[in-house]
Amino acid sequence: MSQPGAEPSKAASTAVQQSDNIAHALAGAGGGVLSMVLTYPLITLSTRAQVESKRAHSTTLDAVRRIVQREGISGLYSGLESALFGISVTNFVYYYWYEFTRSVFEKAAIRGGRASKKLTTVESMIAGAIAGSATVLITNPIWVINTRMTARKSEAEETLPGAKKTKASTLSTLMDLLRQEGPKALFAGVLPALILVINPILQYTIFEQLKNVVERRRRMTPKDAFYLGALGKIMATSLTYPYITIKSRAHVASRDGPKESLNGSLKRIIQEEGWKGLYKGIGPKVTQSAITAAFLFAFKDVLYDMMVSARRKGRIAK
């Protein structure tokens, strides 16, 4: 028979954990938005380098000049609105499920009498896999639209001089896609995206294990999070970049184009463009990913601490 007050105590503990999960999710979403705004031009450059496979981009600087000359500075921010919405939803979903899974493992560790409740490497990978898979399925349509918007300028280059150019909004891009290709197009690239769950698995596993090392010596700071986040992302992105390229190509593929398996796409790219085709745009992508991840982890820690502090003040006020 349970002791009096045991159930309310358990319910209170669950409520606190749920609140903490949401705080992490909101902090992750906010950190993602801030970091995205700072690094979005590099996202534009890397996306175009990936999908414009037939056009040689000699250098990143040349790509910047072409975009600015053709579209103005705003061209570097094409699709930003959908990207901000996408990253906020992506990070909210990811961090919520990651923290939820983490809490399950931590409770199991306590019940099992383990010396430390910190996640092991395997537990970090499982938590990342669950969170990443949920995130991909929920947010893939957002990123399809964003990739279409950032890549559409390859067609604009063919416009006759002096012709009026119109900028497509997120809504118009969505409506055009649904009208021309149907709802199924919103899930283009889902399979490579699910495979790419290995990217955040590697990133967060590296981050968590390095974080554990730091916390054995001292308290983790936003500066530590900045550097560890960048390191984890550099390693993860470098290892998974070929599939990042395939996913970007799938997002902009024509509905009339040939349907290929992942292996088929890999072989075709290698045959037509060589091995370097799999790494087109890797320079700006790795740079952008590392900087974005660094700012994300730093901002997230600060925002999370602010929310926890505000929550405590709210309790005291009551």
Overview of the molecule:
With 318 residues, the protein is an all-alpha fold. 76% of the residues lie in helices and 0% in strands. It is built from 11 helices and no strands. The protein has helices at residues 6-51, 60-71, 80-111, 121-151, 153-156, 170-181, 190-195, 198-217, 222-252, 262-273, 282-317. The radius of gyration is 22 Å and the shape is globular. The two termini are 34 Å apart. 39% of the residues are buried. The model has no long low-confidence stretch (mean pLDDT 78).
Please specify the SSE layout and strand pairing:
Elements: H1 6-51, H2 60-71, H3 80-111, H4 121-151, H5 153-156, H6 170-181, H7 190-195, H8 198-217, H9 222-252, H10 262-273, H11 282-317
Helix pairs in contact: 1-3, 1-11, 3-4, 4-6, 4-8, 8-9, 9-11
Organism: Penicillium egyptiacum
Membrane topology: Multi-pass membrane protein
InterPro entries: MCP_dom_sf, MCP_transmembrane, Mito/Peroxisomal_Carrier
Query: Helicity level, as a percent range?
Result: over 70%
Q: Which sequence of SSEs, written as H and E, runs from N to C?
A: HHHHHHHHHHH
- Estimated share of beta-strand residues: under 5%
Q: How does the helix and strand content classify structurally?
A: mainly alpha
Give the N-to-C terminal Cα separation. 34 Å
Membrane topology: Multi-pass membrane protein
InterPro entries: MCP_dom_sf, MCP_transmembrane, Mito/Peroxisomal_Carrier
Transmembrane segments: 22-45, 75-97, 125-145, 185-206, 226-246
Protein name: Mitochondrial thiamine pyrophosphate carrier 1
